[in-house]
Design a protein that fits this description.
It contains 15 helices and no strands. It is mainly alpha-helical. The chain has one domain. The radius of gyration is 21 Å and the shape is globular. About 50% of the residues are buried.
């Protein structure tokens, strides 16, 4: 039974061990970007383990889309807090980040030691079609819960179209939420007795840390590196390509710590490894400052996510209890799924390119829907198939 702050019970040692096991496994097998990560989390914590109701999961997903930072990592942190309190918040987030950070650190060592990166195309070619199946079945299940009324379903379709035509994701999220709240609560949502003012939502509106980086052209140091990645983690919305723009502006153009080629290699590593894409920071930190640099950069870029979730997490149940704020969150929920749907469409066009990839996607969908196979094992199986096929074609 949920407690007043939204958590389900006080943490126990067994519960923390279980939480750590789930997120270490997800962190080691979660290829495919935030949409795929969220789908795999839904499969584990909603469908398989019943830790959260689907509606609760959707509320947390909507909340993560309203704050800066890596959405899938913030989902892990939210789930950890709901499952095991503040200890769970720290443990779930750390366990989801750790496998990727270790893998990226190893790849950075190879990069620095030998001047290049190992080939990973075969593994990715096997993983991507399975990811399409995982995300597709999650969208179907979550969509049935989010589109509770015909109006919400129409709002979701409109949000999908707007994002597909290039409208900025924050405009889609906040706009859909605002329209749903206004339509449900009448033309004067600020009037007394309307079921709660928008002040319940305002604390979740993106916050920005007041941290300053070192001046342009400054010599490299661990403290400036930490502040730089805290700044990036505090203001980052969007995909890994947005991260590329932030890092290029500071690391290449402003500080001159990296070359263009090194930055692109760092982004590539974040894309081809499991877990959060923001472990790109781990690679950059290692290239610049060895193991201490990798640890400092990783801590810096993920620290804001823990703080934002710690602040916003207790507010989610209060928002849901307010008719006006709850309507806003309903709109954000369907818009969040719209963003996932558009990302999945683009990923599918790039991934399903031949008979093997289509076959892997179909087999993955059947195993998920008919036999309820764990999505993490499916992803690892797809990686193995891709690796074997890649070896034969080499």
């Amino acid at each position: 039974m949920p407690l007043k702050d939204g958590t389900h019970s006080a943490p126990g040692t067994g519960r923390l061990f279980e939480l750590a096991g789930v997120f270490l496994k997800l962190g080691a097998a979660a290829f495919g970007g935030p949409a795929a990560h969220v789908a795999m989390m839904e499969d584990e914590v909603v469908r398989r383990r019943g830790w959260l109701a689907r509606e609760e999961f959707l509320d947390l997903l909507g909340a993560t889309n309203l704050i800066p930072g890596p959405n899938s990592t913030e989902m892990a942190i939210h789930i950890g807090r709901r499952r095991a309190g503040w200890a769970g918040l720290l443990l779930a987030g750390a366990c989801f980040i750790l496998p990727a950070a270790l893998i990226v650190t190893a790849m950075a060592w190879v990069y620095v030691r030998f001047g290049g990166l190992p080939r990973a195309e075969g593994v990715l070619n096997g993983v991507k079609p399975v990811i399409i199946a995982v995300v597709g079945q999650a969208l179907w299940r979550l969509g049935r819960s989010a589109a509770k009324t015909r109006f919400l379903a129409i709002a979701g379709v409109v949000a999908t179209a707007l994002y597909g035509f290039g409208v900025h994701e924050l405009v889609v999220l906040f706009g859909t939420g605002a329209v749903v709240a206004l339509v449900r609560c009448g033309p004067s949502p600020w009037r007394p007795g309307s079921g709660g003012r928008l002040c319940g939502v305002v604390p979740i509106v993106p916050m920005v840390f007041a941290c300053k980086a070192a001046p342009g052209g400054a010599a490299f140091g661990l403290w400036p590196l930490f502040l730089l990645f805290v700044k990036v983690g505090s203001v980052l919305f969007g995909s890994g390509y947005v991260l590329l723009a932030f890092l290029r502006a500071d690391l290449v153009e402003r500080f001159h710590w990296l070359t263009e080629g090194q930055l692109l290699d760092a982004i590539a590593v974040g894309q081809v490894t499991p877990g959060p894409v923001l472990t790109t920071a781990t690679f950059v930190g290692y290239v610049l400052g060895g193991l201490p640099g990798a640890m400092i950069a990783t801590a810096g870029i993920f620290l804001p996510a823990f703080i934002f979730v710690a602040i916003s997490g207790p507010l989610v149940p209060r928002i849901r209890s307010s008719p006006l704020a709850g309507s806003f969150l309903d709109g954000v929920n369907v818009a969040s799924l719209a963003l996932m749907a558009v990302v999945t469409w683009h990923l599918g066009r790039a991934a399903l390119v031949d008979g093997l990839s289509v076959g892997l996607a179909v087999v993955g969908a059947v195993l998920l829907l008919r036999y309820r196979v764990n999505s993490a094992w499916l992803v690892l199986g797809g990686a193995a198939v891709g690796w074997i096929v890649g070896l034969r074609g080499a």
